[in-house]
Every structure is written in C-alpha cells, then in structure tokens.
C-alpha cells in the first residue's frame, strides 16, 4: 500500500505545469494507465497536421485507461508535448449516450484529460490543440450533418467547417454536443492553470479513411479545437456561453 500511496503523492506534488494541489489523478479513481503503441504506418494523427504542422506518429505517445482488474477500455488517447497536442481516440465513461446514464467511472473526462496531459510532461499553460478522432456520438453526428448542410457540404464526403466565437452558430454548436461542451467546462474549471485559455476556433471535418478490414474507405468525422490566450489573435476575455 505504501509504494502506491507514495506514487500518488509524487504525482500530485511534481507535475511539470507548476504546483497544482487540486490535481486529480486516475489512480485515485481505481483506474490504470498503460502504453498502447500505434500500429506502424497508421495515419491516426494526419487530420491534425493542418493545425500542428507536419508530424509523424512517432511524435505522439499513445496510452489507454481502464479500470483496475477490468478488461474494458475507458479511454484511448495520444499526446505530443512538442506539438502541444492531445487527441482523443476513444472515450466511453457511461453505459450509453443518454444524459444521466450510469457511469463506468465517477472521474470526469475533463479531469482525466488534465491528468493525462500532465502525466506526459505537458504544460497546461501552453496546451494548444485538442482533437477527437473518428466521432461516433449520434448527437454530434446529427449536429455536424446540419452544420455541413448549412455550408453546402455533406457529412458522407470530405468536407470541413470552421466555427469561431464571432460566428452565429458558435453558441449552438458549443452547447449542442458533448465534445465542445466538455472542453468549455475544462477551460472554466482549470482557467488559471490553463493560462486563461479560450476557444479560438473549432473545426469539424470529414475524410476518407482506409481500414485494413474494409475494401472501401469510410468517411470519418473528426474535431479539432484550437485554444488561444491573452494577447493572442482571436482571444476574448469573457465567456460567451
């Protein structure tokens, strides 16, 4: 018991983003983090390159979170500290998508993201990009379908839509799906630790992705959120929603 307690105390006292006594670590919630290497030749991070610049998967570390002694994976994510980038590959913390559904873990995903980023040696004050690879949430898919149609696009084909705080759709899109709503919650809860970051823009995009078991490529939906801070282009001091 003592070695485990010492490890938790070390995590709480030595994160590289500065002293943060309120940090919540996955181990406190009965969860484990383990390396989960990407397959050689995979293109999981390619959709981020228009924002982070050209990269190779080798620049990203890959991990997954699961319940101790449990087989089910709760979260799979990628992190590149050098690119200030975090990508959610998979997250499932509830029994289903219904609001109020029973949770698989009481740890909120925004707290998990912060602990994941700090655990990799990241600095919350310079965290810039948050991506979601292969969105399957039905509510978000419906929202993106309508957003694409309003801009002349089709979610079944490659397309992209950028939404910024000054756009009329911003508030509806922000609160209308769990991904952007969760990121806004993260920025509010960790406002000081995140250097008073705000959302500069978020981009929904679709692209054809070839899977080894599929003869025909599938069009998948991704999300990229870019953050900004005081003094940077696009920064707005207040909370719009």
From TrEMBL:
Highest taxon above the source species: Eukaryota
Protein name: Uncharacterized protein
């Amino acid at each position: 018991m003592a070695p485990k307690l010492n490890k938790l105390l070390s995590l709480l006292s030595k994160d590289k983003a500065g002293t943060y006594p309120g940090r919540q670590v996955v181990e406190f919630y009965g969860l484990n983090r383990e390396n989960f290497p990407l397959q050689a030749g995979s293109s999981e991070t390619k959709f981020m390159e228009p924002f982070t610049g050209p990269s190779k998967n080798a620049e990203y570390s890959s991990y997954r979170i699961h319940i101790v002694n449990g087989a089910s994976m709760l979260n799979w994510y990628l992190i590149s500290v050098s690119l200030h980038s975090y990508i959610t590959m998979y997250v499932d913390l509830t029994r289903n998508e219904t609001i109020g559904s029973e949770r698989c873990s009481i740890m909120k995903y925004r707290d998990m993201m912060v602990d994941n980023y700090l655990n990799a040696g990241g600095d919350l004050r310079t965290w810039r990009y948050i991506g979601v690879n292969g969105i399957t949430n039905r509510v978000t898919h419906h929202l993106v379908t309508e957003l694409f149609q309003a801009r002349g696009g089709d979610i079944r084909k490659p397309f992209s839509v950028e939404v910024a705080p000054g756009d009329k759709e911003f508030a509806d899109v922000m609160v209308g799906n769990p991904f952007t709503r969760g990121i806004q919650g993260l920025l509010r809860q960790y406002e000081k630790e995140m250097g008073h970051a705000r959302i500069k823009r978020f981009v929904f995009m679709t692209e054809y992705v070839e899977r080894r078991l599929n003869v025909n490529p599938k069009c998948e939906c991704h999300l990229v959120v870019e953050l900004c801070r005081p003094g940077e282009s696009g920064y707005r001091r207040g909370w719009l929603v």
